[in-house]
Amino acid sequence: MTALPHEGGPRGHVLVVDDELSMREYLEILLVREGYAVTSVPGVEPARSVLEKDQVDLVISDMKLGTAGSGLDVLRAARSRKEPPEVVLITAFGTPSSAVEAMREGAYDYICKPFDNEELRLLVHKALEKRALRQENSTLKARLLPGLGGLLVGTSPRMRALWQLVEKVAPGRSTVLVTGESGTGKELVARAVHLRGHRAAQPFMPFNCAALNEGVLESELFGHMRGAFTGATHERPGLLVSAGEGTVMLDEVGEMPLSTQVKLLRVLQERKVKPVGSAAEIPFHARVIAATNRRLEAEVKAGRFREDLFYRLNVITLELPPLRERPEDIPHLASHFLSRLSEELGRPGLRFAPETLVLMERYAFPGNVRQLQNMVERAATLSDSDVLGPTTLPPSVRGESEPQSRPGDAGEPVLGQGFNLERHLDDNERRHLLAALKQAQGVKTRAAELLGLSFRSFRYRLAKHGLTDELDEPGGTRVG
């Protein structure tokens, strides 16, 4: 039978397969209350019929279906579809071996009876998130290739060479390291590698290595077993396994703790993960792309990054040049961003005055492509005219000072001709970093405390100002 969701439209179509009527009805009620459209059937054959006729986003199937087949049969039927739904298997007979088999066959996850309602709700939400991400990747491939939406466009020799290299490495499975300053588009390049290869229809899953602490980081990457730690109420595959034949992007890989680096190295060498709390290893098939705005060679020298992991990741390097080193690309990028905004704002006549493009081309853009995109959005949103003249740009881009204080205003700075706020703030930040290091006698943890910063944030700011290599002593805890 099919149950309709509450008013407001479905959040996704879920197919429930269970040979017990009471369980089908229970799951229907639970899922409809959450806003999903639900179809329930008692076995494999009616499940196949629904999969052939309807667009299904998620399948929840019991592993044991009596004489009507098994959950693995349902899983295989779902995976055979052109746009396969995610599949969650439910069983009262959970064993590590059956979980591994389900993961190998492409199941999103595996949950044991009796389960907590909130646990299932979260699992359904995450599975449908992954489904939406995979659909987004397919849409991107159809809409954005070959120029990937223009964000990798450019007439500069370095960008043409980069694009040619992307084309060469995309079909393979080699690990790729994407390097470049913040805002240059490292995730975009990683997506380009994914979309130009045979994995394009599979998930592209970016993961920020700096966002989580060590324990959570390993659980998210490698997975965990039920009861492995407080809150681990069910087995969960890690990102590397759940990505299937897709691509996992390890962003900010230079921030990964050394202990996790050791485990990641082994995982990449063996192509197997060992979930937290498990003695068994699970093979994975995803491609790994790492990205960093750090110079990993310098991090290796300073003892903050393992040399063996660096060479494992650095099979092929795609280096993104900063925007200031390819100024001829600025007009092309700016025009692309404006064209896209014109559609969103319903103002098809938006265009740059020639002198506006000249000013942008002369600007250094310390925030790179991201800063340019924000600048274009600001200009298009605030301008009353369809022609975006120089006055729509920030004063720093026009080569002007910021508005000056009125004479006699106590406590307000007097800003002279040529004042640049970003440069002023950078200079002040650098002076404070050096002052804190001097006052702390080179002990970086103490210097971070003096500035009210976390150690990670303090270390990032040192690297940002190029102070790390010059100041670090072996061991990286003191500076001279």
From TrEMBL:
SUPFAM superfamilies: CheY-like (SSF52172), Homeodomain-like (SSF46689), P-loop containing nucleoside triphosphate hydrolases (SSF52540)
UniProt record, GO biological process: phosphorelay signal transduction system; regulation of DNA-templated transcription
Secreted is among the record's keywords: no
Region annotated Disordered, chain positions: 383-416
One example GO MF annotation: ATP binding
Annotated ranges, domain Sigma-54 factor interaction: 152-381
Domain Response regulatory span(s) in chain numbering: 13-128
Full protein name: Sigma-54-dependent Fis family transcriptional regulator
Source organism: Corallococcus carmarthensis
